[in-house]
Design brief:
The chain has 274 residues and is mainly α. The chain is built from 13 helices and no strands. Helix 4 runs antiparallel to helix 12. The longest helix has 36 residues. The chain is globular. The two termini are 37 Å apart.
Length: 274
């Protein structure tokens, strides 16, 4: 019996390694090609370059205008994620503690956005009417609104699992609604709010369709549109395209690695407590 469990464990670990390699191989090819010459990179082989050419990254940075695009993406992703954290925290606490029919209807109306597709034609008309086309504020508010459904769904499940006795004890000690939220509830939401922040940051950083419709000047473009434009100009030079992809992927990989443990903890806690 013991040997069967060991064989099963070895088999599952081997399967996990194989799947991981399948996922990682394309990224490794991209990284290696980013250091190759143009002729070497066209082959797209999983092999070390004859000579590591670091100038590819300098060319990409200078000709692809990645500096401004990086700042735009960082502004949109960070600002919208922080705003989303506060909006979702307040909303989840209010809706979960107020068990009226209106609160339930409002909650299900908000999370309905998880399943409904986003229609960009009427959205563009709304953005034009509000004067938010081609503006940083418009993109930040749009990304915040796009992240509310799934983020509220995760946070609501977590808040619902917090005992109401804590609220009653805090109120008896003289806390009003605002103090109750900031001093009692908010500290308990650390893991799930970090989860919301990281997931929304990754989503906004990788978003392509929304800025394509809403931004019409190069200076406002995020990294995704910069990569798209660069790929159109240098599609035959795979070494430069690969270097561009690597530079674009590094920030989002770093954020994911730093927040990975919080993502797992936040999602599992919300699932159990909800």
């Amino acid at each position: 019996m013991q040997w069967r469990k060991r064989l099963t464990s070895i088999g599952l670990n081997a399967l996990a390694w194989i799947l991981s390699l399948i996922v990682l191989i394309p990224f490794v090819v991209i990284v290696l090609n980013s250091f190759k010459s143009d002729a070497e990179a066209k082959v797209l082989k999983l092999s070390l370059p004859e000579k590591f050419i670091f100038d590819n990254y300098q060319i990409v940075y200078e000709q692809g205008h990645l500096g401004q695009s990086f700042l735009n993406s960082l502004l949109h992703a960070t600002s919208s994620s922080l705003l989303l954290v506060f909006v979702v925290a307040f909303s989840a606490f209010t809706l979960s503690r107020n068990h009226s029919r209106l609160s339930n209807v409002l909650y299900f109306f908000l999370i309905l956005g998880i399943t409904l597709p986003l229609n960009y034609i009427p959205l563009m008309e709304v953005m034009k009417t509000l004067g938010m086309i081609n503006s940083h504020l418009g993109m930040i508010l749009l990304y915040t609104a796009m992240g509310i459904p799934i983020s509220l769904f995760i946070t609501y499940a977590f808040v619902s699992g917090i005992p109401k006795e804590l609220d009653e004890a805090a109120i008896m000690d003289g806390c009003n609604g605002i103090k109750l939220f900031w001093k009692i509830i908010m500290p308990l939401l650390g893991s799930v709010l970090v989860t919301v922040f990281v997931l929304n940051f990754l989503s906004v950083w990788n978003e392509f369709t929304a800025p394509l419709y809403m931004l019409n000047t190069v200076d406002m473009w995020p990294m995704t549109l910069a990569v798209y434009n660069f790929f159109g100009q240098f599609s035959a030079q795979w070494n430069l395209v690969s270097a561009d992809i690597v530079l674009t992927s590094l920030p989002v990989l770093l954020v994911f690695l730093l927040g990975q443990k919080y993502i797992v903890g936040g999602l599992t806690s919300g699932a159990v407590k909800g």
